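Support reply, case 0932

Customer input (verbatim):
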Amino acid sequence: MPGEVGGADYHDRKGHVMPASLKPVPADEQQKSLMQKFKEKRRWAVKRFGKKLIYKLAKFMEKQSLVETTPFIPSEQFKFLDDLQQNWQVMADEAREVLKFRDAIPAFQEISRDQHRISKGKNWRTFILYGFGQLLEKNAKMAPQTTKLLEAVPNLQTAWFSILAPGYHIPAHTGVTKGILRVHIGLIIPKDYDKCRIRVGDDIKAWQEGSMFILDDTYNHEVWNETDEERVILLFDFDRPMKWPGRLANKLSIAAMKMTAFYQEPKKNLVNFEDRFEAATQRASDNLEKMSDRTF
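Our regenerated output:
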């Protein structure tokens, strides 16, 4: 209407109405914008260089490996995992307690924005117990028995309850390093378990409650949950058994990666979400206490 100014328009010093597209950008905002662009370009360069380096390291570590380098590795070679598998029901019970606060459990891409392509919405939640080799003590209090059982795993890198929504498909992707092996233990699995499965390379496996398999996630892999039920597994990584040159290369490469934004940003986010989850459980506890006071 005549005389009205659009919400995005502005007046110049002489009082003329000017379109928002011509509005001068403050110097401090320009500097922030330039810094952001620089960080994004640096991130892209690091990622591109890192992929080339990772490929070369993978070939080297493959030759250094003391176990199979197939998509799935027989679990019989890792006796220290027996107690974990045998106590899957204990861990499943703890996972159910965690799920009572489902809304406070972050999606994977909220922890690491580099996962945005494979994790959408709230379809893939992660309750992390160990991140980058360090115990998340507040989260661990929610799953003390699981945390205790994980202590038997040598050179543990990460561990979390991986929670997949009904009907979700995790697109094909590959892991970062050949220097680790990944373990899946089925905790809460849909009744139609054959419709809830993972492909690693050309091999496909379906989860079952209490089942365990070990995989090399540097192979192209993807996941389907073609059921109307949630799927929960314990997922954790530990160092691949290798000859000493391979172990040294793995240690140095992980140390180098921890200095990049790909590790630093998720590490900060882990602390934030751990605090949020603790706050959510505390609110629930306070509410129960108030209800109890009113009852009596």
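We compared this against your earlier run and they match. Two observations from our side: The chain has a mean pLDDT of 85. The chain is about 40% helix and 20% strand. Please reopen the case if you see a mismatch on your end.
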